[in-house]
Design a protein that fits this description.
It is a single chain. By secondary structure, this protein is an alpha/beta fold. The protein has one domain: Spore Coat Polysaccharide Biosynthesis Protein SpsA, Chain A. The protein has eight helices and nine strands. A hairpin with a 2-residue loop joins strand 6 and strand 7.
Length: 248
Protein backbone atom coordinates (compact mmCIF):
# COMPACT_ATOMS: atom_id res chain seq x y z
CA UNK A 1 0.00 0.00 0.00
CA UNK A 2 1.18 3.52 -0.80
CA UNK A 3 -0.60 6.25 1.09
CA UNK A 4 -1.87 9.04 -1.13
CA UNK A 5 -2.01 12.42 0.56
CA UNK A 6 -4.44 15.25 -0.05
CA UNK A 7 -2.56 18.36 1.00
CA UNK A 8 -5.01 21.25 1.36
CA UNK A 9 -4.00 24.91 1.34
CA UNK A 10 -6.61 27.55 2.13
CA UNK A 11 -5.65 31.15 1.49
CA UNK A 12 -6.87 34.70 1.04
CA UNK A 13 -4.70 37.58 -0.18
CA UNK A 14 -1.62 35.49 0.57
CA UNK A 15 0.67 36.63 -2.26
CA UNK A 16 3.33 37.67 0.24
CA UNK A 17 3.66 34.24 1.86
CA UNK A 18 2.18 31.45 -0.24
CA UNK A 19 5.21 30.68 -2.43
CA UNK A 20 7.30 29.14 0.40
CA UNK A 21 4.25 27.08 1.39
CA UNK A 22 3.81 25.70 -2.11
CA UNK A 23 7.54 25.23 -2.67
CA UNK A 24 7.79 23.10 0.46
CA UNK A 25 5.02 20.88 -0.89
CA UNK A 26 6.59 20.61 -4.33
CA UNK A 27 9.90 19.66 -2.68
CA UNK A 28 8.42 16.60 -0.96
CA UNK A 29 10.08 13.38 -2.10
CA UNK A 30 6.95 11.28 -1.57
CA UNK A 31 5.32 10.93 -5.01
CA UNK A 32 1.70 10.17 -4.10
CA UNK A 33 0.33 13.65 -3.46
CA UNK A 34 -2.84 15.44 -4.48
CA UNK A 35 -2.67 19.20 -3.93
CA UNK A 36 -5.90 21.13 -3.32
CA UNK A 37 -5.86 24.93 -3.04
CA UNK A 38 -8.97 26.78 -1.86
CA UNK A 39 -8.73 30.54 -2.30
CA UNK A 40 -11.20 33.06 -0.87
CA UNK A 41 -11.30 35.17 -4.05
CA UNK A 42 -8.02 36.96 -3.44
CA UNK A 43 -7.34 40.32 -5.04
CA UNK A 44 -3.57 40.60 -4.54
CA UNK A 45 -2.20 38.21 -7.14
CA UNK A 46 -2.48 35.03 -5.06
CA UNK A 47 -4.46 33.33 -7.82
CA UNK A 48 -1.74 34.04 -10.38
CA UNK A 49 0.91 32.57 -8.10
CA UNK A 50 -1.11 29.39 -7.57
CA UNK A 51 -1.72 28.99 -11.31
CA UNK A 52 2.01 29.43 -11.99
CA UNK A 53 2.60 26.01 -10.40
CA UNK A 54 0.70 24.38 -13.24
CA UNK A 55 -0.21 20.72 -12.82
CA UNK A 56 1.51 20.54 -9.44
CA UNK A 57 -1.82 21.89 -8.19
CA UNK A 58 -4.40 19.14 -8.68
CA UNK A 59 -7.49 21.19 -7.81
CA UNK A 60 -7.84 24.95 -7.49
CA UNK A 61 -10.99 26.86 -6.59
CA UNK A 62 -11.34 30.58 -5.90
CA UNK A 63 -14.64 31.78 -4.49
CA UNK A 64 -16.09 33.55 -1.49
CA UNK A 65 -16.35 31.60 1.74
CA UNK A 66 -17.75 32.01 5.24
CA UNK A 67 -14.37 31.96 6.96
CA UNK A 68 -11.30 29.77 7.27
CA UNK A 69 -13.12 26.65 8.45
CA UNK A 70 -15.68 26.90 5.67
CA UNK A 71 -12.76 27.05 3.22
CA UNK A 72 -11.15 24.05 4.92
CA UNK A 73 -14.42 22.13 4.65
CA UNK A 74 -14.44 22.86 0.92
CA UNK A 75 -10.98 21.36 0.73
CA UNK A 76 -12.15 18.25 2.56
CA UNK A 77 -15.06 17.84 0.14
CA UNK A 78 -12.69 18.09 -2.84
CA UNK A 79 -10.04 15.74 -1.43
CA UNK A 80 -9.66 12.27 -2.91
CA UNK A 81 -6.54 11.08 -1.07
CA UNK A 82 -6.26 8.56 1.76
CA UNK A 83 -4.80 10.99 4.31
CA UNK A 84 -5.53 14.72 4.63
CA UNK A 85 -3.30 17.51 5.89
CA UNK A 86 -3.83 21.28 6.02
CA UNK A 87 -0.77 23.23 4.93
CA UNK A 88 -2.25 26.69 4.91
CA UNK A 89 -0.66 29.84 3.53
CA UNK A 90 2.39 30.75 5.66
CA UNK A 91 2.90 27.14 6.82
CA UNK A 92 5.98 25.33 5.49
CA UNK A 93 6.97 21.66 5.70
CA UNK A 94 10.11 21.27 7.79
CA UNK A 95 12.00 19.17 5.23
CA UNK A 96 11.43 17.16 2.02
CA UNK A 97 10.92 13.83 3.83
CA UNK A 98 7.96 14.76 6.03
CA UNK A 99 5.36 13.01 3.90
CA UNK A 100 7.52 9.95 3.27
CA UNK A 101 8.01 9.45 7.00
CA UNK A 102 4.33 9.96 7.76
CA UNK A 103 3.29 7.63 4.92
CA UNK A 104 5.44 4.87 6.43
CA UNK A 105 3.35 5.07 9.60
CA UNK A 106 0.01 4.86 7.79
CA UNK A 107 1.23 2.16 5.41
CA UNK A 108 2.38 0.03 8.33
CA UNK A 109 -0.93 0.35 10.20
CA UNK A 110 -4.09 0.38 8.07
CA UNK A 111 -6.17 0.88 11.24
CA UNK A 112 -4.40 4.13 12.17
CA UNK A 113 -6.88 7.01 12.01
CA UNK A 114 -4.87 10.04 13.07
CA UNK A 115 -1.19 10.79 13.50
CA UNK A 116 0.41 13.86 15.05
CA UNK A 117 3.96 15.13 15.45
CA UNK A 118 5.63 18.42 16.36
CA UNK A 119 5.65 21.92 14.93
CA UNK A 120 8.15 24.77 14.99
CA UNK A 121 6.63 28.15 15.72
CA UNK A 122 8.35 31.07 14.00
CA UNK A 123 8.16 34.40 15.79
CA UNK A 124 10.23 37.57 15.34
CA UNK A 125 12.80 35.71 13.28
CA UNK A 126 13.25 32.97 15.89
CA UNK A 127 12.17 29.34 15.98
CA UNK A 128 10.35 27.83 18.94
CA UNK A 129 9.89 24.03 18.84
CA UNK A 130 6.59 22.68 20.17
CA UNK A 131 6.47 18.98 20.96
CA UNK A 132 3.17 17.23 21.53
CA UNK A 133 4.55 14.00 23.02
CA UNK A 134 2.52 14.64 26.17
CA UNK A 135 -0.85 14.59 24.37
CA UNK A 136 -2.92 11.49 25.12
CA UNK A 137 -6.57 10.49 24.63
CA UNK A 138 -6.98 11.22 28.35
CA UNK A 139 -5.56 14.74 28.59
CA UNK A 140 -6.35 16.23 25.16
CA UNK A 141 -9.57 17.60 26.70
CA UNK A 142 -7.54 19.84 29.00
CA UNK A 143 -4.70 20.75 26.68
CA UNK A 144 -4.14 21.58 23.03
CA UNK A 145 -2.93 20.10 19.78
CA UNK A 146 -2.06 22.28 16.81
CA UNK A 147 -3.75 21.09 13.63
CA UNK A 148 -0.56 21.83 11.68
CA UNK A 149 0.86 18.77 13.46
CA UNK A 150 -2.04 16.47 12.51
CA UNK A 151 -2.64 14.03 9.67
CA UNK A 152 -6.01 12.25 9.45
CA UNK A 153 -7.48 9.67 7.17
CA UNK A 154 -10.23 10.94 4.90
CA UNK A 155 -12.44 8.18 6.31
CA UNK A 156 -12.33 9.92 9.72
CA UNK A 157 -13.91 13.04 8.22
CA UNK A 158 -16.47 10.88 6.44
CA UNK A 159 -17.33 9.12 9.70
CA UNK A 160 -17.27 12.05 12.14
CA UNK A 161 -17.97 15.06 9.95
CA UNK A 162 -15.94 18.14 9.09
CA UNK A 163 -15.41 21.44 10.94
CA UNK A 164 -18.29 23.23 12.64
CA UNK A 165 -18.27 26.70 11.09
CA UNK A 166 -20.38 27.98 13.98
CA UNK A 167 -17.11 27.93 15.93
CA UNK A 168 -15.08 30.57 14.06
CA UNK A 169 -11.85 30.37 16.09
CA UNK A 170 -11.61 26.81 17.43
CA UNK A 171 -13.48 24.47 15.11
CA UNK A 172 -10.25 22.54 14.61
CA UNK A 173 -9.97 21.88 18.36
CA UNK A 174 -13.63 20.83 18.51
CA UNK A 175 -13.00 18.40 15.65
CA UNK A 176 -9.95 16.93 17.38
CA UNK A 177 -11.92 16.32 20.58
CA UNK A 178 -14.62 14.68 18.48
CA UNK A 179 -12.02 12.34 17.02
CA UNK A 180 -10.39 11.45 20.33
CA UNK A 181 -13.80 11.04 21.99
CA UNK A 182 -14.83 8.55 19.28
CA UNK A 183 -12.10 6.10 20.29
CA UNK A 184 -10.20 6.61 17.04
CA UNK A 185 -6.77 5.00 16.77
CA UNK A 186 -4.21 7.80 17.22
CA UNK A 187 -0.42 7.93 17.39
CA UNK A 188 2.31 10.44 18.13
CA UNK A 189 5.64 10.51 16.30
CA UNK A 190 8.56 12.57 17.56
CA UNK A 191 9.13 14.38 14.30
CA UNK A 192 8.90 18.01 13.22
CA UNK A 193 6.12 18.43 10.67
CA UNK A 194 5.97 22.08 9.73
CA UNK A 195 6.99 25.63 10.50
CA UNK A 196 4.01 27.59 11.76
CA UNK A 197 4.03 31.40 11.77
CA UNK A 198 2.74 32.84 15.05
CA UNK A 199 0.08 35.55 15.03
CA UNK A 200 -2.59 33.66 13.11
CA UNK A 201 -6.36 33.62 13.33
CA UNK A 202 -6.53 32.34 16.92
CA UNK A 203 -4.55 35.29 18.25
CA UNK A 204 -6.56 38.02 16.55
CA UNK A 205 -9.31 37.90 19.18
CA UNK A 206 -7.85 36.24 22.24
CA UNK A 207 -10.90 36.76 24.48
CA UNK A 208 -13.22 35.16 21.94
CA UNK A 209 -10.75 32.33 21.41
CA UNK A 210 -10.54 31.54 25.12
CA UNK A 211 -14.33 31.70 25.58
CA UNK A 212 -14.93 29.41 22.61
CA UNK A 213 -12.22 26.99 23.76
CA UNK A 214 -13.83 26.75 27.22
CA UNK A 215 -17.28 26.19 25.70
CA UNK A 216 -15.87 23.35 23.61
CA UNK A 217 -14.15 21.69 26.57
CA UNK A 218 -17.33 21.75 28.63
CA UNK A 219 -19.23 19.97 25.86
CA UNK A 220 -17.06 16.94 26.57
CA UNK A 221 -16.32 17.33 30.28
CA UNK A 222 -18.28 18.79 33.20
CA UNK A 223 -17.04 22.34 34.01
CA UNK A 224 -15.49 21.29 37.34
CA UNK A 225 -13.67 18.41 35.67
CA UNK A 226 -12.50 20.61 32.79
CA UNK A 227 -11.18 23.17 35.30
CA UNK A 228 -9.44 20.56 37.47
CA UNK A 229 -8.01 18.73 34.49
CA UNK A 230 -6.66 21.97 33.06
CA UNK A 231 -4.73 22.82 36.22
CA UNK A 232 -3.45 19.30 36.76
CA UNK A 233 -2.13 19.33 33.20
CA UNK A 234 -0.48 22.72 33.80
CA UNK A 235 1.34 21.19 36.79
CA UNK A 236 2.42 18.19 34.72
CA UNK A 237 3.73 20.36 31.87
CA UNK A 238 5.56 22.64 34.30
CA UNK A 239 7.27 19.60 35.79
CA UNK A 240 8.24 18.41 32.32
CA UNK A 241 9.75 21.83 31.54
CA UNK A 242 11.75 21.73 34.76
CA UNK A 243 13.14 18.38 33.63
CA UNK A 244 14.28 20.08 30.42
CA UNK A 245 11.64 18.76 28.05
CA UNK A 246 10.48 20.85 25.08
CA UNK A 247 6.70 20.88 25.05
CA UNK A 248 3.86 22.59 23.26
Amino acid sequence: MSTRFSIITVCYNAAACIRPTMDSLVAQRWPHIEYVVVDGLSKDGTQDIVRSYGDRVTTFVSERDKGIFDAMNKGIALAQGDVLFFLNADDVFCDPDVLADVAAQFDADPQLDLLYGNIVVTRDGQQHPRRFHWVTPRNIYYGDLCHQAVFARRSVFERLGSFNIQMPTDADYDWLLRVFDSGARTRYIDRNICFFADGGFHTQNQARHEAERWAIKTQYRAPWRAWLGYWLLRVELKARKLRGESIG
